[in-house]
Amino acid sequence: MLWLIKNPYPMADRIIAISKDVKTSLERVGVDSCRMVVIHNFIDHRVIDGSKGPTLPIPQDKRVIISEGRLVEQKDFPSLLRAFAIVRLALDARLVIIGEGPLRKQLERLAGRLKVAGDVLFTGWLANPFGADPQASVFVLCSRYEGFGNVIVEAMACGLPVICTDSPGGPAEILGNGAFGKLVGVGDVREIADSILEVLIDPVVQETMRRQSLIRANAYRVETLAPRYLEGLDASPAPGLLPSPEI
């Protein structure tokens, strides 16, 4: 990756960074900041709004925590499982993990050791995960780092309250530094568990966060961000840092 950055990148007229942290990281390895603009990823709300995905095999009266991502170290699903084990002591809840990866067997064994295997559903990869989101009460992402975090915006567009680790990359930008969702410490199992419990127990908190998610997701519509690509690729002098979408 470093070779790709140091060789082809200088030939580019523009370099689009998907978060401010990505831009800063590129600057650290010598990429000219005048060539870069920050433009967040966008989502197509039409795809999400029209989705009819699989119904999860979970009773409708259960509180459901949902997470999504490749089952790799970066996503830190062990911390999520340990936090869920704490939540499960207080509430009759279920955890749904959407995604596939090399750590699946290891994570399944960990769920067994934590005595929550019967309450954790590993769905594997789903072609259309959005249909499962309406069954959930909260979306949680425990990544150690993210370039951007598309699944966060997708969950918000589905009206889910979001809890996310304050990891390097895009999560804090997406959540407006905590204005539109809860930011928790990376690997802080107790804080993750306490935040999940607050959302699941307090209907006022849950409904407030749902509204915040829907509002914030509107900033990432394709029709909102596509014009920024035209600005970023314009032949005029490099505009530097384009402002992130603000609400």
From TrEMBL:
InterPro entries: Glyco_trans_1 (IPR001296), Glyco_trans_4-like_N (IPR028098), Glycosyltransferase_grp1 (IPR050194). Residues 3-45 form the Glycosyltransferase subfamily 4-like N-terminal domain. Residues 56-211 form the Glycosyl transferase family domain. GO terms for molecular function: glycosyltransferase activity. Gene3D superfamilies: Glycogen Phosphorylase B. It comes from the Bacteria. Pfam families: Glyco_transf_4 (PF13439), Glycos_transf_1 (PF00534). PANTHER family: SULFOQUINOVOSYL TRANSFERASE SQD2 (PTHR45947). This is Uncharacterized protein. It comes from Desulfosarcina alkanivorans.
